[in-house]
Design a protein that fits this description.
Layout (H helix, E strand, L loop, with lengths): L17 H7 L14 E5 L5 H10 L3 E5 L15 E2 L3 H5 L4 E4 L4 H5 L2 H5 L4 E4 L4 H15 L3 E3 L2 E2 L2 H6 L2 E5 L6 H11 E6 L5 H29 L5 H7 L7 H12 L8 H15 L6 H15 L11 H5 L7
Parallel strand pairs: 1-2, 1-4, 2-3, 4-5, 5-6, 8-9
Antiparallel strand pairs: 7-8
Helix pairs in contact: 2-8, 9-11, 9-12, 9-13, 12-13
């Protein structure tokens, strides 16, 4: 779903089913695919960037990776990637640059390295409308081809190469970006002119945030009324109200076990981006409610837990209270 800092796990496991995944995504096995000599620089190898870069390596692309904390990019060397000591070194001579960083400020900090190159800039971070517009404008002035391409999906989807790429930008860049998008995603949706991809990402994130918050409220209400919260998940199973994501997050809330696929603090960042994009054009009261619960959960010590820990914003329990 979304939705994306440093992650404690640094290994990038090799997957024996890598070619099976390619087959199920509608691509022929690797030996039948045309290899490319393109060099891709990946700036940012956190929760999402690390597995994305690994999949680029597995697809036969030449990868140079950079991360502010160098050790976090280290596992990619086992996959054949060059771990660069600076953004400039990573970008030098690259054909495409993928930025997958925490926010607009982090992406802005590396833009000069990109603007001094001749590479296509694929901006995959979730940075919102304002930052995307800013990056597109500076790229155009510098003569750097720019594609706005945030991704939909959390860490497991990134590891499996099953992200949905929400791309937007000049049509003539589609073919050049295709090897990258095919390697990291199950599907690419071209949403329209530059910026439409980021807008679509915010639309999708608003839905994910609302769904997670609604699940937390139903679980919290069931518990407050003395009901077994699993009855709620049972009631919706198999019917028109059923959503797999509700079971995924609902089970985590009930068990109080929140393996991180999308950190709560990043979800709060995205909720703010959604509200900024809406402005006065749409009344997103639900997103405001989600943000209030997210901020309450962060105050209770759950900023680095998974988005599902929004439950604690609903129940008002600090970390020590479980």
């Amino acid at each position: 779903m979304p939705l994306f800092t440093a992650h404690p796990r640094q290994t990038v496991p090799r997957r024996a089913d890598n070619e099976n995944r390619a087959h199920h995504r509608g691509r022929p096995p690797r030996e039948e695919r045309k290899m490319t000599d393109s060099t891709v620089a990946v700036l940012g190898t956190g929760v999402m960037g690390l597995p994305m870069a690994a999949n680029l390596c597995d697809a036969g692309l030449k990868v140079r990776a950079w991360n502010r904390t160098r050790e976090k990019a280290g596992p990619l060397a086992e996959r054949g990637a060059e771990v660069a000591g600076s953004p400039e070194r990573a970008v030098a001579g690259a054909d495409l640059v993928v930025t997958m960083l925490a926010d607009g400020s982090a992406a802005d900090a590396v833009k000069e390295a990109i603007l001094g190159s001749e590479a296509v800039w694929i901006q995959a971070s979730t940075v919102g409308v304002e930052w995307t517009t800013r990056f597109a404008e500076v790229a155009e002035r510098a003569g750097v081809p720019f594609v706005d391409a945030p991704v939909l999906g959390s860490e497991p989807a990134a590891e499996q190469g099953k992200l949905v790429v929400l791309a937007s930008g000049p049509e003539e860049l589609r073919e050049r970006c295709a090897p990258v998008f095919d390697a990291i995603g199950a599907r690419t949706v071209w949403a329209g002119p530059t910026g439409a991809g980021s807008e679509l990402k915010l639309v999708a994130n608003a839905w994910v945030l609302a769904l997670t918050n609604a699940t937390a409220e139903s679980i919290g209400l069931a518990e407050a009324l003395g009901l077994d919260p699993r009855l709620f998940l049972d009631v919706i199973t198999g019917g028109s109200l059923d959503v797999p994501y509700a079971h995924l997050k609902g089970d985590a809330m009930i068990s109080r076990d929140f393996p991180v696929s999308f950190a709560l603090r990043h979800a709060a960042k995205d909720a703010k981006l959604v509200l900024e994009a809406a402005g006065r054009k749409a009344d997103l009261a639900g997103t405001r409610a989600v943000l209030a619960h997210l901020e309450s959960a962060m105050r209770a010590g759950h900023a680095d837990d998974d988005l599902g820990a929004v439950y604690f914003g609903v129940r008002g329990k600090p970390r020590s209270g479980g």
